[in-house]
Amino acid sequence: LGGGWSPAGDPLWAAVRRLPRGTVVRLRADAGEDRVELLDDAAIVALLGAGFDPAAAAEGLVAGLRALADWSGRPSLVPVTGGRDSRLILAAAMRAGFAFTTTTGGAVGTPDVEAGRELARAAGVEHELLGSDPHGDMYSEPERAAEVVALLSAGTACLADAAGFPLGPAAGPLPLWHSGQGGEIARGYYAPVGRTGRRSPRGELVERMYSAFTGRRPGREAPLNPTGARLLREHLHDWVERQLDAGAAPADVPDLFYLQRRMATWAGPSHGCVEPVKDTTSALWSRRLLAHELGASTAERNRELFALRVLERLARELVDVPFADGRPWPARQGRLARRAGRARVLAGKLAAELQRRGTRGGGARPDGADRFAPVHALVRDRVLSQPDHPAWAVLDRPRVERLLAAPPSALDTMSRYYVWRLAGVFLVADYASASIDPDRPGAPPRAAVGHH
Q1: Crossing angle of helices 413-426/372-384, nearest 10°?
Q2: Taking the model in full, what pTM does it have?
Q3: Pick from 110, 78, 15, 98: nearest CA to 324
Q4: Residues paired with residue 6 on neighbouring β-strands, in sequence order
Q5: pLDDT digits over 62-80, tens only?
Q6: Where on the phi/psi map is residue 288: left (φ > 0), alpha (ψ -120 to 50), or beta?
Q7: Which of 37, 98, 260, 323 sits between 20 and 30 A of 346, alpha carbons compared?
Q8: CA–CA distance, 262 with 257 (Å, rounded to integer)
Q9: What is the DSSP string of 99-163?
Q10: For the chain, which ranges sit under pLDDT 70?
Q11: E strands of 122-250, at which residues?
């Protein structure tokens, strides 16, 4: 449920209560209940740096994926991209022995599609492009997309997350979509932002987490007002305190944030958005593998050693297939080379961004038109026509107005995400009857303005 949102006067909300992460609830016949916490903070922290066994991890991954695919009459698809985690799932599927095909979303010639095709070719399996949704998408039907995402994710996802989310059902048996989701737990997803050292002051760590969560950069701030920023910082402060009090080193806190906040409260619920057309499995996201994924040291996670060592045991022929970003495995580079590689990637992103601005790309159609431009105009009209919307309790009006007044071609990727997140709130009619209490303890701003 979206933090801080509750329909005014709805008596059903009196029975809604939040459950802590990883809690199993058993309802008894006497109207009582029992709660069991599967992994508390201390248990998770104890896994960090405890060591990992690549052979055991590979065996566990194959066994888990084989069990997930054991569903008679349901076709299995492995989405492959130019990243790290999908090729681990591809390798495990090759070993597991069930029939499957591979697919990649995007246009012919894009790095992800070309890398996906090369992976399928190396694996000797069929590959196809992911087709478009016949019911439309977030660009062609933004209002419909906002309604569907709000309904199916219970407010935990927004339109910034909605690429690939369906807007209608699919015919035939729904496929099992064996994703690589969860593999980021083992590879220092927030490492560039979270390089804090083992003795960083707690306040500095909170600020680094705030910057990572909101996408803050020089010259770019999330459209939060002081109240919204305070709520988010308080939420992050309390969470960081719990991790440090449980014994986590500051350098490990960003990876714990990915596991406990990004995965548990965003990635998991967002699976509900795709259930009309497929069932997503996440073999890398399991308690069986968590000990291995977190067992790598902080440095090993930053070097993506888990993924490399497991892949070497499952399918060596996939190890050297180039990644979409053009970088080699970090574990095969020295520290200076990794820093230089990150600099090249940033420079490449800058060049792509400059090209996008010059060609009005970023969702461009074959005719060169920017599909985001009409969405931007729609969101501007809806936001500015609702001056009493409850979301303004946490939004900075001047910053939002500047964002919506700027030409779409002048907005970088993160700024466009901000617009999509505003769309996820202001395009949904039900939110007009909602209420926010900004001072309610533990109520962070909605996902619409955060950076997952």
Answers
A1: 50
A2: 0.82
A3: 110
A4: 435
A5: 999 999 999 999 999 999 9
A6: alpha
A7: 260
A8: 7
A9: --EEEE-S-TTSHHHHHHHHHHHHHT--EEEPPPPTT--TTT-HHHHHHHHHHHHTTS--GGG-T
A10: 1-13, 191-200, 333-368, 430-452
A11: 127-129, 176-178
Pairing of strands 127-129, 279-281: unpaired
**What residue type is assigned to position 88 of the chain?**
L
Closest CA to 145 of 425, 411, 360, 413: 425
Q: Can you tell me which residue has the tokens 């709130």?
A: 425
Position 77 scores a pLDDT of: 96
> What are the strands, taking DSSP E only, across 200-336?
279-281
Query: Is 279 in a helix, a strand, or coil?
Result: strand
What residue type is 103 in one-letter code?
T
Query: What does the pLDDT look like over 275-307, one tens digit per residue?
Result: 889 999 999 998 889 999 999 999 999 899 999
Measure the CA–CA gap between 267 and 153, rounded to whole angstroms. 10
Is 325 in contact with 341 (CB distance < 8 Å)?
no
Q: How far apart are CA 159 and CA 357, in angstroms?
A: 22
Measured CA distances, 449 to 85, 222, 394, 408 (Å): 27, 7, 9, 18
Predicted pLDDT of residue 444: 37
Residue 311 carries which side chain, given as an amino acid letter? L
Considering Cα of 178, then 180, then 186, then 190, what sign does the dihedral take? negative
Q: What is the pLDDT of residue 429?
A: 77
HSE-CB for 257 with a 13 A CA cutoff: 29
**Encoded amino acid at 47, one letter:** L
Q: Please answer whether residues 239 and 21 qualify as being in contact, where contact means their C-beta atoms are separated by less than 8 angstroms.
A: no
| H/E element, 323 | none
Strands 23-27 and 33-37: antiparallel
Q: Both tokens of residue 205?
A: 């760590």
For the chain, the residue count is 452
Token output for 361 = 């790309």
